[in-house]
Amino acid sequence: MSTYDPYDIWKTRGGFRVKQFYNRHPMAGLVPAATLTLFDTFVNNRLRISYRPKEYPIVRATAALCLMNRYVNTGKQRLIERAGEHLEWLLANSCRGYSGRCWGLGFPYGAGPSLVYDANTPFSTMTPYVLEALVRYAALTGEDRFPFAIDSVFRFFDRDIQVMAEDHESMATSYGPFVDRIVINALSYTMYALALALPNVSGRQKPRVEEKLVKLYRYIQKAQRPDGSWLYSPQGRSFIDCFHSCIVLKNVFKTNQVRRLPGCEDLISTGYAYVKSAFFDEKQFLFRRFSLANKPGIVRFDLYDNAEVLNLAVLLKEQDLAVRLLDSIRHHFFRGTDIYSQIDITGALRNRNMLRWAVMPFLHAASQMV
User: Fold this and answer.
1) Is 104 among the domain residues?
2) In a domain, 154, yes or no
3) Dihedral sign, CA of 196, 201, 204, 208?
4) How many domains does the chain fold into?
5) For the segment 332-360, what is each residue's pLDDT rounded down to a tens digit?
6) What mean pLDDT comes out for the span 187-198?
7) Which of 27, 99, 129, 278 allows an S-S link to 291, with CB 3.0 to 4.6 Å?
8) Where in the sequence is the domain holding 324, given as residue range(s)?
9) pLDDT confidence band for 146 (50 / 70 / 90)
10) pTM of whole model > 0.90?
11) What pLDDT does 254 receive?
C-alpha cells in the first residue's frame, strides 16, 4: 500500500521551506514555488528522484471500505479478512498523545503563514474514514473485534477537536486538535464522525452529542451561499473547488441517514446543482478543479474531483451520470493498468498510480457501483 504522492516535492526539506516562504510572502515566493512545481510536473513526475513511497492511513482506510463493498457483492470471505488486516494496521499506526485513536497525513504540512502541522498531527478530515471502516466492519461481521476503537475515535472528536465559534444555534470546530482554522469540509467530517459514533455513545451523553452534531450542520447550512456553493473557508483569501464541495454534500447526506437534519434536502439539492453547473465540462464529460481559484495552477482535470462527483452521484442515485462519468474517467485517466491522477494544461497525464490522491477515492466510488 506504499505510494508516491503529489505532495512529495513539498515533503522534502527544500520544498517545505519554499512552500512556507510562499505562504508568508506570496509575491516573492511565487517564482521559487512555480519553479519547483514545474520541475515536479514536467521533469520528475515519472522519475520521482529523491522521493520515497510512503504508507498513508487514509489509503488503508479507503482500501478497507473498498474490500467491504466487494465483500457485500461477492460474499468472498478473504475480502472481509483483508479489510480486518487493514484495520489492524491502522490501530497500530495511529497518532500518539491524544484522547483517542486518530490519524493524519504522517508528514509535516504548512497550511498557512504561521500554521504548520507536524507529522503526528491528526485531522478531522482523515480520521472519519477509519471510523467509517470500523463501524462498517462491525455491522458486516457482527464481531466485537474493534468496539474499543470506535469509542476511542469518538473521544478524539469529543475532547481534542476544538470549538472555534459557537452561538445558540450553530458551531464551528477546528481542523486539527488545537485552535487553528475553520474549514467547511472539516466541519462536515466532524459532524459525520459524531453521527457514526452516536449508536455507541452512552444514553447520558447522547443528547449533548446530538446537539453538537446539529449545531455543526447549522453552521454548514448558514455558510452555504445563495448559488449553493461553499467557500473552502470563511476565513482569509479562500476558494471554491469541486471535490471539497462534494465532500460537504456527501457528509451531510450520510449524516442525515443516521440523524435527521432539518432542511438538508434543499441544501443538498442546491449544492449538487451548483456542482453540476459550475464545474462540468460537457465536451470532455469531466468535472473541473475550481469555480473560484485563489492562485494559479497547471492542472486541467483532477481525478479527485471526478472521483468525489462519482461518489456523490452514486449516493444520490444519479445512475445515468454515474455510469457516463465512470466511462469518461476510464477513458481519460486510465492507460492499461495504470491510473493517473491529473491531466495538466498541455493535456498530458501526470501522477501515475498515486493511491492517496486520488486512485483510492476513485476505486471506493467505483466499488459501490458493482
Assistant:
1) no
2) no
3) negative
4) 2
5) 999 999 999 999 999 999 999 999 999 99
6) 98
7) 278
8) 279-370
9) confident
10) yes
11) 98
